[in-house]
Structures are given as C-alpha cells and as structure tokens.
Design a protein that fits this description.
Helix content: 25-40%
CATH architecture of the largest domain: Alpha-Beta Barrel
Distance between the termini: 22 Å
Number of helices: 13
Length: 313
C-alpha cells in the first residue's frame, strides 16, 4: 500500500479536460506523483454531465502500473455513486470527499462498502471552526473500519476563507490570516490520533517566493502534501520536501537499535524517545524526494548516490 509522502504535491485536474486520459495515465505530466480528477468546484454545475461522461470514457482506458496515484474529487454522494458504477473504477486509488462533516461522512462510507478505495476527507465547512465538532468527527474517523481507509485529511483553505468573507491576500501566507490558528488546532486535534493533514492550495501563480514561504510553514505545522493548481507548482513544492543530509544522519542515528537515550549530533540534542516519530517521517520524505542540494554553512554536501544510499541504510 502506498504511503502519504508519495502523494507529493497533488495536482487538481478538472474532469472536463479533453486530455484527461493522458494526464491520468501519466503519458502527459509524467512527473506528477498524484492527480485528483475534479468534479466539484473546478466544474460548473451545467458542465457536470459532460464532466462525468468524459470521466466515464476515460476510466476504462487507464492501465495498472507504477504511474501516479489517481483520485476523483466527487461533488457529493450521488456523484460518487455514479463514479463507483463506472467500468474501470478499480484503477482509482480513492476519492477526495468535499465538505465532509460528521453528518455527511456516513453517506460516503456506506457507498464504499465492498470497494478497496482510500479516502481523503476535506475539512472546509463552518464546522471546522467548532472544536467540539472536529472532536466528534475525529471519533467517527477513529473507528477501525474507517481509519484504515483514510489516507489523509485535506484542508480546504479557500472554502474556509470564503466562509469568513475573505480571500487570501497577495503576498501573504495562510498563516498570516485567521486560518493560521485554525490549521494549528486541526493539527493538534487530528495528528495525535494518527491522521495526516495536507495543506491547502496556493492560488497565485506569479508569486513563487510566497508559495515557498507557505510550504515551509506547512511543514512547520506538520502538514504533509499540498494541493497544486498548476503543474509548474509541483516541482517547486516538492523541492521543499527534500531533506538536509545532516537531518537524515540524525534521523538514522535516532532510529538505530544501539542509539543512546540522549546524544549530541550536529549541535543538536537528539532524544530517541521523543524524536522517533520525526525521524520516521523524515526518512520517508528522504526516500521519496531525496536530499537538498544546499545545506547549512559548515556542513559537507553529500552528492554521490553511494553516500545517499549509505544514509538510508
């Protein structure tokens, strides 16, 4: 079963596109790790019949293989029911469930009985601002038959800002808006129960500097994965997920069977009892995205494949 880091920067693709098969099959935009074929906000209501017909045509043409992960972002439970009945649905890894609430989630889960698909519920309704509702939703997600389906929880930044009558200001990260504290609370609500959260879209295509600042802040908040709205954003986002060689060295030492209870490495205190989860996550990122080309001043750069392989041992 593929893991959360392999999602990378998930690219949203409207299902109205004429090149849907080529994108979903990986013959176009082959560098994309995961693609989300969207029937919701990216498709106008009047275009939905064509979008579903286009998806129905594409699905049987998809093939198994090492291509990117594929998901369909359904519009509602009725649309998911239609997609599940399409020939070729077994080629999907799962579904993105929009505007999930404690009341709506059971409708989606009932439709998935007998299917293998994973789910990525999206937190983007007014209930997100209510801590009690998020705790109640977490209790539903924690059920064994549900938790095993959940790949990650997605945060719908634009929908949440819309509920506040706002749009992300240019030059500002989400963490410079009221959503900063909301995201922090979602992390502390869901991550201790083992649920990953992925970061919202950054909709400005001409502001790379702010995008990179936001991805850095995503990572500071423990968010793994970010939705991309344009293929050019994907390599920019995923470059931020590369790991510094000294951090990987520390992670491997922390995970070593003979690691002492506490030790100093690269002028940092390392304590396996408290740093083990960080070390596991960092090693997964390194195996998926590799090492950063730049490292802190005074630290030797690792450039060879042999050096990198040695670090992962």
């Amino acid at each position: 079963m593929r893991d959360v880091p392999e999602l990378g920067a998930s690219l949203y693709v409207p299902t109205t596109r004429q090149d849907l098969v080529q994108i979903a099959q990986g013959t176009k935009l082959s560098e994309i790790r995961s693609v989300i074929l969207c029937t919701e906000d990216a498709v106008n209501a009047e275009a939905l019949p064509f979008a579903l017909a286009n998806l129905r045509h594409a699905m049987p043409l998809l093939q198994c293989g090492p291509q990117q992960m594929r998901f369909v972002r359904v519009r509602n439970p009725h649309v998911m029911q239609q997609v599940l009945a399409m020939p070729g649905v077994e080629q999907l890894d799962g579904f993105v469930l929009p505007k999930v609430t404690r009341a709506l989630l059971p409708e989606y889960l009932a439709l998935l009985r007998g299917h293998h698909h994973r789910i990525m519920p999206t937190l983007e309704t007014k209930e997100v601002f209510d801590e009690r509702e998020m705790i109640a939703l977490r209790e539903v997600l924690e059920r064994e038959d549900v938790a095993e389906r959940v790949l990650t929880l997605r945060i719908g930044g634009n929908d949440l800002l819309s509920l506040l009558g706002m749009r992300r200001p240019r030059g500002k990260t989400l963490y410079q808006t009221p959503l900063g504290q909301v995201i922090a609370r979602l992390v502390t609500t869901f991550k201790p129960s083992g649920f990953n959260l992925s970061a919202p879209v950054f909709e400005y295509l001409d502001d790379r500097e702010t995008l990179l600042r936001e991805v850095s802040e995503d990572m500071d908040h423990g968010l793994v994965g970010k939705t991309a709205v344009h293929p050019d954003q994907v390599p920019q986002i995923e470059a931020c997920y590369r790991v510094h060689a000294p951090d990987l060295e520390m992670a491997n030492r922390i995970l070593a069977e003979d690691a002492p209870g506490v030790f100093r490495m690269h002028d940092a205190m390392c304590e396996p009892a408290t740093h083990r989860n960080w070390a596991h996550r960092l090693c997964k990122s390194a195996s998926c995205f590799g090492l950063r080309e730049t490292v802190p001043a005074g630290v030797n750069t690792i450039t060879s494949r042999e050096d990198f392989a040695q670090l992962l041992m």
